Protein: Ribulose-phosphate 3-epimerase
Organism: Rubellicoccus peritrichatus
Amino acid sequence: TGRVAIAPSMMCVDPLNFETALRRVEALGADMLHMDVMDGHFVPNAPMGLAVIESLKDRTHLPIDVHLMVENNDFFVSLMEGWGVHQISVHTEACSHLDRTLARIREIGAKAGAALNPSTPLSTLDFILERIDYVLLMTVNPGFAGQKMTPASLKKIADCHAYLEARGYGHLPIQVDGNVSFENIPAMVAAGADNLVAGTSSIFNSADSWPNNIKRTRDAIA
Ligand code: DX5
Ligand code: ZN
């Protein structure tokens, strides 16, 4: 696949400085805004409310990339109807009627993604390939920023790449989320990652300056 996309994870931003961070990631040429939605049930955390996503409509030129980590997925998808969201991923583990939920995402005009926890087998994609526009592989257990990559992550990215190719879906982008660090990016891209969720491990790394973090992220991809 082509150029590797960068999706800054906006839950890593201080809520009181959200717009400042937004304008910075716009200026750096980020490809989309990764917006995590958590409900305190599917994952034990609940940062950033949906109101932030709604308020972004007409306030940024960047595509909105929503990652739902919730139990009641259909409720959240329906709420976002009319917000102009570019893409929405749902966790396969959380959807009793996954096929229907994915179809619903496309019905509201968004691209549909299937998100997989680290322990979830790729075979969960077997019967929904026609319904999805991308795959999100979690490379940490979802819920919190600042974690270490789970051990099988690189093998899983490579396996997913081969899995999609073998079934004629090699064009589907693979998004990776969790500990996408300067150190991990080269191996993630080599394994087949097309879209990098950039959080505290790279763009929002507090140990270095903003411009340096951007440069190091780009250098790690190239
Ligand atoms: C997980 C979120 C973030 C992301 C943060 O769904 O998108 O928590 O992992 O990035 P890191 O792992 O670098 O802090
Ligand atoms: Zn995410």
